[in-house]
């Protein structure tokens, strides 16, 4: 991916690598950050309305995604990726900023997700 034509100083992806066998997406940014994001985290944190809801406080807890895989990634313009998951979900547009945030905060987001599942009596499986 090229940073040509971008504006501002936000981190920009320089490499995106899908490893289907490991169910991960690795994104390297021009500030040197590199994040390997598991499919499960990407799926349960999808920016889609199906997961995030249509307003503040409407985020849904998505159970049963431990073994979800990424079947494909598609660029959307020069600002995002559409990630297609093995469960058919494909409506979230993952902007570069959001992918960076997910990578930076992956451990905290996964921990919060696991606590939320437990509190609601739900399972990753």
TrEMBL record:
It comes from the Bacteria. One of its GO terms (molecular function) is metal ion binding. Residues 16-100 form the Gamma-butyrobetaine hydroxylase-like N-terminal domain. The keyword Lyase does not apply. It holds the Pfam family GBBH-like_N. InterPro entries: GBBH-like_N (IPR010376), GBBH-like_N_sf (IPR038492). Keywords: Iron, Metal-binding. This is DUF971 domain-containing protein.
């Amino acid at each position: 991916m090229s940073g040509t034509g971008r504006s501002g100083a936000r981190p920009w992806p320089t490499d995106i690598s899908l490893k289907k066998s490991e169910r991960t997406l690795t994104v390297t940014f021009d500030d040197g950050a590199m994040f390997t994001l598991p499919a499960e985290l990407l799926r349960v944190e999808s920016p889609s309305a199906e997961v995030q809801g249509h307003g503040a406080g409407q985020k849904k807890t998505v159970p049963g995604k431990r073994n979800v895989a990424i079947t494909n990634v598609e660029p959307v313009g020069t600002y995002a990726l559409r990630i297609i998951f093995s469960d058919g979900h494909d409506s979230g547009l993952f902007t570069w900023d959001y992918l960076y945030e997910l990578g930076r905060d992956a451990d905290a987001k996964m921990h919060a997700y696991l606590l939320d599942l437990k509190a609601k009596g739900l399972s990753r499986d």
